[in-house]
Amino acid sequence: MLSVTILAVGRLKDKFYEDASAEYLKRLGAYAKVQVVEVKAVDLPENASAAQTEEALQKEGRLLLSKLPERCLAVALCIEGRLCSSEDVASLLSDAALSGDSHVAFIIGGSCGLSDEVKARADIKLSMSRMTFPHRLARVMLLEQLYRGFKIARGEKYHK
User: Fold this and answer.
1) C-alpha to C-alpha distance for 7 and 21, rounded to whole angstroms
2) CA angle in degrees (0–180, nearest 5) for 147-151-155
3) Neighbour count for residue 137 (Cβ, 10 Å)
């Protein structure tokens, strides 16, 4: 069975995000061993300088990389990544399982994104959309897309 780790900066603080996340994690249990690993977000002042933002990205990046499973296909979710469809997610999951990559890790940055080091370590860089979403919502969206991807890969019905 494929293992999926979602590495994320920060906690889900709103109940509706927590509830949605828990629902998709429950559904995903039938398809893969899925775990969410959260790292602490660096607190930044409201008007953070570029240097402060870069320092925060570096700290969060080191924390993310320290939690990355040793042998995994690392997928960074970042704005400069390749746009993909739900079918592309299904293919990514199927290809990983078939190629012997039994562990896929998706990396979600905090409100400032991901450090260059994390992006450099990633085997794949994906973008969820050209639109900007809160990173907490991005986690729920990723879980939904993983669930949809597994359903597509197995030829099962999924509402549109």
Assistant:
1) 14
2) 170
3) 15
Residue 160 pLDDT greater than 70, yes or no = no
Determine if residue 100 is left, alpha or beta; phi over 0 gives left, psi from -120 to 50 gives alpha, anything else beta. Answer: left
Please, are residues 3 and 33 in contact by the beta-carbon 8 Å criterion? Answer: yes
Judge contact between 9 and 110, C-beta under 8 A: yes
- Gap between the Cα atoms of 19 and 14, Å rounded: 9
| Number of compact structural domains in the chain | 1
Q: Residue 145's domain is classified under what CATH number?
A: 3.40.1280.10
Tokens of 137: 């919502």
pTM above 0.90? Answer: yes
Confidence of residue 97 (pLDDT cuts 50, 70, 90): confident
Q: Quote the domain boundaries for residue 144.
A: 3-153
Asked whether residue 158 is domain-assigned, the answer is no
Distance separating alpha carbons of residues 70 and 98, to the nearest angstrom? 19
The DSSP element (H or E) to which 150 belongs, if any, is helix 135-153
pLDDT, tens digit (0-9, with 9 covering 90-100), for 102-145: 899 999 999 899 999 999 999 999 999 988 888 899 999 999 99
